[in-house]
């Protein structure tokens, strides 16, 4: 069972995401569409299920929150409008706020760039890994 702190964090995640994981019927369409599926420890439908069940702790320590591409393909495929990508982004933001630091700093990014990388990806990295 969740602690009071975890319950408050789940409430904050639901508020930030605008999602209702109780609507998830666990069809897996979101995960089947996810281009980062193979890289993620927890898949989009599992985020919805685990948040609904109050199992937030494994998600807070998972690298999957940083592997999500924020492409929103999962949201397009969801027949119940659960918004799994928004849940993942909200979990990531809670972790960043709780740790009071970012997963990456701007100084980490230049060494990861290559000239074929679209500028949209660079902007996405700054949005994803900063407060």
Task: Report what the structure shows.
The chain is an all-alpha fold and 131 residues long. It has a single domain (4-100), classed as Alpha-helical ferredoxin (Fumarate Reductase Iron-sulfur Protein, Chain B, domain 2, Orthogonal Bundle), CATH 1.10.1060.10. It has helices spanning 4-17, 29-33, 44-53, 57-60, 64-67, 73-77, 84-99, 119-128. Helix 3 (44-53) crosses helix 7 (84-99). The relative contact order is 0.17.
From N to C, what is the helix and strand string?
HHHHHHHH
Approximately how much beta-strand content do the residues carry? under 5%
Query: Averaging pLDDT over every residue, what do you get?
Result: 87
The helical percent reads 40-55%
Fourth CATH level, the homologous superfamily: Alpha-helical ferredoxin
Name the shape in a single word. Answer: globular
Q: Which CATH class is shown?
A: Mainly Alpha
| CATH domain fold name | Fumarate Reductase Iron-sulfur Protein, Chain B, domain 2
User: What low-confidence regions span 5 or more consecutive residues with pLDDT below 50?
Assistant: none
Estimated radius of gyration = 15 Å
Overall tally of structural domains:
1
Helix/strand class: mainly alpha
Summarize the biggest pleated sheet. none
- In the CATH hierarchy, the architecture is Orthogonal Bundle
Any chance you could write out the topology, listing elements then pairs?
Blueprint: H1 4-17, H2 29-33, H3 44-53, H4 57-60, H5 64-67, H6 73-77, H7 84-99, H8 119-128
